[in-house]
Design brief:
alpha+beta, Glutamine Phosphoribosylpyrophosphate, subunit 1, domain 1, Rossmann fold, 6-stranded antiparallel β-sheet, 27 helices
Length: about 600
């Protein structure tokens, strides 16, 4: 696990510029650094040593010196690929997966990507062709950003590295802001920094130096293809087999591997199957059971005979960490669980360099409770659309939150209208009241093509598909990468192995959702491995008590000050913001997610633009 950066083109002061870019991402790897400089290209590397501790330093050159690699990630099947390449005549100097990528690109070009099992973003400079080839993994586990600054291509693992390149002028991308207010994360290819783009998951780019030609190509798209047949026991066997093989791959390391543990089925399965002896948990003491999973994790660790390290996060240290969290996230991010993950990663990094985590299980196996909504809404959606809309209009005017109000309002909407992912913060009319400048399309328009491609699937499967494309890389994997790498910790995600994906995408609908039970096949696969109360436990997520804290005086005053400031008035109608804050404080409505989403934007703006 590492940080990479570089630029292609005619630039002044190449070495000091590259050094500043590398320093900006030093937290991604403090075990060593390396540079490659010639007249056309500058490549930088920060290393966190996990495999081949003695060798494997980058930038790495092939035996003829005409190709150079920088790589962030882990390739879990590198040994098999190495044997194949040796048979084809390639000569190796190290035991590293980095060198396998380099020779694999020589042999297969872009075709190498389909052979890889792992998480990666990497770039290869081909001197002979005067071309840079860069790729990002299938699901977006590892990040890759790029920008054209004049006629120079600049790239890096993190945006803050590109900001160090002279000539780039920071400007807020207000179209990203408009979408963020609905999704709660940056969803567009162009980031919040105008002119800086993310290479999307499952894509690669090529940049030809002589022609100054940049091309981006998609090589992978996650798609569900549910089977119609198959016995229940056979599917459960397939789940156990695929996960067991994936965990075995993900344990390949020259350092000790630990595991995050929430006490739920995802992390519990990984801890049990892997045999990791050290696990890590965080919670919020004295905030109620809804916000504290530490007892569940401690009991499960005791049952498994492994050690559990627990960290309780106070309200004060949570608030104190916010500027650091916003800095490392680099873009506004409305998911408060990122802060909890920051503390969890800090605790783990003091004991191990690598941990396993359960990201991807919910998207692949159908774990979110919201996926049960289509079944619940069927009792109202058989009614004609006009009647449903009238009922929703009446419900909308009812004061407070009487039982059934939300049900009628959502029942009047089509799936495309009501679902853009696990978060839908501000709707169209709310954004009209909030934003001073409207710039972009509505979320439903952005997702139209994706929904069109999935129209043959059941509604809950379509919801999974949207989350695989957007929520997983934009929220779940982004916060995991940034919060862990802020502490030089590598997180591995065995559920996002291609073989697990190929099996899970074929799961019949009944093996994901069964009589109100989510993630049915995975829960059944856990029986006999985990205690019954763990395999059957309802998903909580990573809950954070911001709803309560925003009603307390210290937090209320801090947020009110931000909402009344110059930055807020430049982008928002602040009277609406203050109305939301007052209604929440007085208990009239729960606006906590709206308030938090806007506050995180203002905090980010203060850090990067003020």
């Amino acid at each position: 696990m590492c940080g990479i950066c570089g630029f292609i083109g005619d630039a002044m002061e190449r070495e000091p510029v590259l050094e500043r870019m590398m320093q900006a991402i030093r937290h991604r790897g403090s075990d060593g650094s390396g540079v490659f400089l010639d007249g056309k290209v500058a490549l930088g590397f920060q290393r966190l040593s996990i495999i081949d501790l003695e060798q494997g330093m980058q930038p790495m050159r092939n035996e003829t010196g005409d190709r150079v690699l920088v790589f962030n990630g882990e390739i879990y099947n590198y040994r098999e690929l190495r044997e194949e390449l040796v048979r084809r005549g390639h000569q190796f100097k190290t035991r590293s997966d980095s060198e396998v990528l380099l020779h694999g690109y020589e042999e297969h070009g872009a075709g190498l990507l389909g052979k890889l099992r792992g998480m990666f973003s990497f770039a290869v400079w081909d001197e002979e062709r005067e071309e840079l080839f860069a790729a990002r993994d299938f699901f977006g586990i590892k990040p890759f950003y790029y920008a054209m600054v004049g006629d120079v291509l600049v790239f890096a693992s993190e945006i803050k590295s590109i900001l160090e390149y002279p000539g780039y002028r920071m400007e807020v991308n207000e179209e990203a802001l408009e979408q963020y207010l609905s999704f709660q994360y940056s969803v567009l290819p162009e980031t919040f920094f105008r002119g800086i783009f993310q290479l999307l998951p499952g894509h690669y780019l090529t940049y030809h130096y002589g022609k100054r030609e940049l091309k981006v190509t998609r090589y992978f798209r996650p798609e569900l293809l549910p089977a119609c047949r198959g016995k229940r026991k056979e599917w459960i066997r397939k789940v156990r087999q695929a996960l067991g093989q994936s965990v075995e791959r993900h344990l390949v390391s020259d350092v000790k591997v630990g595991s995050f543990l929430s006490g739920g089925v995802d992390s519990g399965l990984l801890a049990a199957v892997s045999g990791c002896v050290e696990t890590f948990t965080v919670g919020f003491r004295n905030e109620g059971s809804l916000y504290d999973e530490t007892d569940f994790a401690r009991k499960l660790a005791g049952n498994l005979g492994i050690e559990n390290h627990c960290k309780y996060i106070s309200k004060e240290e949570f608030m104190e960490a916010l500027p650091s969290v916003a800095y490392y996230l680099e873009e506004p991010f409305g998911d408060a669980s990122a802060v909890a993950l920051y503390f969890l990663s800090r605790e783990a990094s003091g004991k191990v360099k690598t941990v396993l985590s359960g990201e991807g299980a919910d998207e692949l196996f159908g774990g979110y409770n919201i996926y049960l909504e289509p079944e619940m809404l069927r009792y109202v959606q058989w009614l004609p659309g006009g009647i449903r809309r009238k009922a929703a209009a009446i419900a909308r005017r009812l004061p407070g939150h009487p039982k059934g109000k939300g049900y009628l309002m959502r029942g009047a909407l089509s799936l495309r209208q009501r679902y853009i992912g696990n978060a839908y913060i501000f709707r169209r009319k709310e954004k009209e009241r909030l934003l001073k400048h409207r710039t972009g399309a509505e979320p439903a328009q952005l997702l139209r093509r994706d929904y069109d491609c999935m129209g043959h699937l059941k509604d809950s499967d379509q919801m999974q598909g949207i989350d695989l494309l957007y929520w997983l890389p934009g929220d779940i994997l982004k916060k995991t990468d940034r919060m862990s790498m802020a502490h030089s910790l590598e997180v591995r995600v065995p559920f996002l192995d291609l073989d697990v994906y190929e099996m899970a995408r074929r799961l019949p609908h009944r093996m994901k959702f069964h009589h109100g039970i989510t993630k049915y096949a995975l829960r059944k696969a856990a029986e006999g491995i985990l205690p019954g109360q763990v395999s059957a436990r309802r998903k909580l997520g990573f809950p954070v008590p911001i709803r309560n804290w925003l009603r307390e005086e210290d937090w209320y005053r801090q947020v009110r000050e931000a909402f009344s400031g110059e930055t807020a008035s430049a982008y928002f109608h602040t009277e609406y913001l203050l109305q939301l804050l007052e209604e929440h404080r007085n208990g009239k409505e729960d606006h906590s997610r709206k308030i938090w989403t806007v506050y995180c934007f203002l905090l980010w703006h203060r850090i990067y633009f003020s």
